Amino acid sequence: MRVTDLVVAASIVALALLLSYAMFLGGIGPVPVRSELRTLALNYILLTYNPAKIVYSALAPEGVTAIVWDYRGLDTYFETAVMFLAIISVVALTHGCKVKVGLGKGGMSLIVKTTTRILMPLIVLAGISITMHGWLTPGGGFQGGATIAVATVLALVTYSIDTLAKHGIRKRVLLAMRSTGLIGIALTAVALLIVGLVVGANAYIFQNQERVGSPLAFPAYFSGTPTGGSLLFYNLFEAFAVSAGLSLAIIVTSLREEEVKETLRGEGVE
Amino acid sequence: MNELIPYLLTVVFVSFVINLVIALYGIFARPTLVKKIIALTIFSDSLNSLAIFVGYRVVSRGVPAPPVVVNYTNPQGPAQLARVAVDPLPQALVLTAIVIGLAVTLFMVKVTMQVHRVYGTTSVRKLEHIEHGNKEVKEEGVVE
């Protein structure tokens, strides 16, 4: 056993040294001690809000959201699909479990409950604010949705799972919300294609502003403020889907022993 | 001062790598599934931080700025930003990776909970000695 430990320790140290040496020599590109941007990053920054070169631009001042939902929109779409696959797997593991009312003692003390009641709307508001400024300041649908899901976690811990169920935050509702968000994203991705079919013009999937060979575009300004075109809709639906999906996964994960064991026995685990 | 910044950045860089390797040790060597999950989250967080770090840059004048065009009404705004902005691409990749990582971690936690409910243990060394169809862990049959 001692020899094994020694071998493990030595191999770990060797791996650390090798990895850091390889990375320092340029294994993952230039080390960040540099004063110039990479050409790709320079292009993204120069083109993310550029009305003069509208064919290459997303017309959104925030570079990260422009990359996430415009330049690399298809990547993000499938990353979202991976995320919802994980959430659906969590839900499928507890298929048939029902929340039982009156199992626990009904949550924490009155002080914690009152504080949570004051805090929860503020958290949701902050999440909405992060979402709705996603194309102007750092933020967006993912971050806003994750922030809104924090409110659910807080309520889950402070109150109890059956209080949430009593107030309508149930599995079916959250699943419907999550699916609505995902359908919204898919519809936004093909919206200009549908418009192009009706009008008779060329269009692309995940098109935001007008591109080479396609004059169609989402409205880029709302009363003088840039909206980022399709980025507004993507952020909105993504926040919807992420907040509902993460809340759903957390609620299902915190199902109590009595609720899950019955299903495990009923489905014949042995 | 000019030598100090690269030195400190190198220290941060190497510490990320050491963090990664320790997390790998946790994933491979610890027997409990819970500790494997914890090590995996440490691994992914270190890797995300490393990706952000690769996008960092030292600017010659001023401080590095996030890739947001603040004065977008000015036609020179993006060009001004390009002098101080950091690389937006690693941030965009890490952003989705974090949210996906949260969902996948929840899935792993859920599976581990079910394993514990069915077999009464989360140690992979004990789990491999459980015969098929035998739910109880035999105390004397366990080889640690």
Blueprint of the fold:
The complex is a heterodimer of chains A (270) and B (144).
Chain A: H1 2-24, H2 39-47, H3 63-71, H4 73-93, H5 110-132, H6 141-158, H7 161-166, H8 171-199, E1 221-222, E2 225-226, H9 230-253, H10 257-266
Antiparallel strand pairs in A: 1-2
Helix pairs in contact in A: 3-4, 3-9, 4-9, 5-6, 5-9, 6-9, 8-9
Chain B: H1 4-29, H2 33-54, H3 77-84, H4 88-119, H5 124-127
Describe what you observe in this structure.
In chain A, helix 5 (110-132) packs antiparallel against helix 6 (141-158), helix 5 packs antiparallel against helix 9 (230-253) and helix 6 packs parallel to helix 9 (230-253). In chain A, strands 1-2 form a two-stranded antiparallel ribbon. Chain A has one domain (70-266). Chain A has 270 residues and is mostly helical. Chain A has ten helices and two strands; from the N terminus they run ααααααααββαα. In chain A, a hairpin with a 2-residue loop joins strand 1 and strand 2. The two termini of chain A are 35 Å apart. Chain A has helices at residues 2-24, 39-47, 63-71, 73-93, 110-132, 141-158, 161-166, 171-199, 230-253, 257-266; strands at 221-222, 225-226. By secondary structure, chain B is an all-alpha fold. Chain B has a single domain (4-127), classed as Helix Hairpins. Chain B is built from five helices and no strands. Chain B has helices spanning 4-29, 33-54, 77-84, 88-119, 124-127. In chain B, helix 2 (33-54) runs antiparallel to helix 4. The longest helix of chain B has 32 residues, at 88-119. Chain B is elongated. The interface between A and B is large, with 71 and 59 residues.
Per DSSP E runs of 2 or more residues, the count of β-strands of chain A stands at: 2
The gross shape of chain A turns out to be globular
* Major β-sheet profile of chain A: 2 strands, antiparallel
Kindly state the percentage of residues in helix of chain B.
55-70%
Overall CATH architecture of chain B = Orthogonal Bundle
Instruction: Give the SSE order of chain A as H and E letters.
Output: HHHHHHHHEEHH
Write down the CATH topology of chain B: Helix Hairpins
Domains of chain A, number: 1
Instruction: From the alpha carbons, calculate the radius of gyration of chain A and give it in angstroms.
Output: 24 Å
Run of helices and strands of chain B: HHHHH
| Count of helix runs of chain A | 10
Strand neighbour order, sheet with most strands of chain A: 1-2
Percent of residues of chain A in beta strands?
under 5%
- Would you tell me the overall average pLDDT of chain A? 85
Instruction: Kindly provide the name of the CATH class of chain B.
Output: Mainly Alpha
Mean of all residue-level pLDDT scores of chain B = 83
Number of strands of chain B: 0
